[in-house]
Design a protein that fits this description.
Blueprint: H1 7-11, E1 27-35, H2 40-48, H3 52-60, E2 63-73, E3 76-85, H4 90-99, H5 101-110, E4 114-115, H6 118-122, E5 128-130
Antiparallel strand pairs: 1-3, 1-4, 1-5, 2-3
């Protein structure tokens, strides 16, 4: 199975925290990916009733304050996500998430809806990391 990181990723091994100041023990992540216009309604439906096992896994893997936004820009649709990581070993938590069978099933549902940007696609990922340029605690 192709590795997909959606929390945010879901989502990505190469994420690094932005250099701006952060609350102790919290790393913030912003990510972006495309979405197929004909799959937007299904994507919204999935997330309106997110599976309890997926939500439990996010908490178990120290992912909090997770949000996904939808935006159309010049006729193309994009998903923008934000989450906070409060754990001490991001890579281990992402491996734990990827090993969860419920999360794997969830990704099989969400993967066909998304259109990775070129940098993510070249790395075999779905979401592209965004640089944090401002933070107001």
């Amino acid at each position: 199975m192709k590795k997909q990181w959606y929390f945010p990723a879901l989502v990505s091994w190469l994420l690094v925290a932005a250099c701006s100041p952060q609350k102790a023990g919290v790393q913030r992540f912003g990510m972006v990916t495309g979405i197929r216009p004909d799959k937007i309604a299904y994507y919204k439906q999935l997330h309106a009733a997110a599976w309890p096992g997926v939500l439990e896994n996010l908490n178990a893997c120290n992912i909090h304050n997770y949000s996904i936004y939808l935006k159309e820009i010049e006729g193309k649709h994009y998903l923008f996500s934000y989450f906070e990581y409060t754990g001490s070993d991001y890579e281990a938590d992402m491996k734990k998430m990827a090993a969860d069978t419920t999360v794997q099933r969830w990704w099989k549902e969400t993967a066909p809806t998304q259109l990775p940007l070129p940098d993510a696609a070249a790395a075999g990922q779905t979401w592209s990391n965004m640089e944090e340029v401002f933070y107001q605690p």
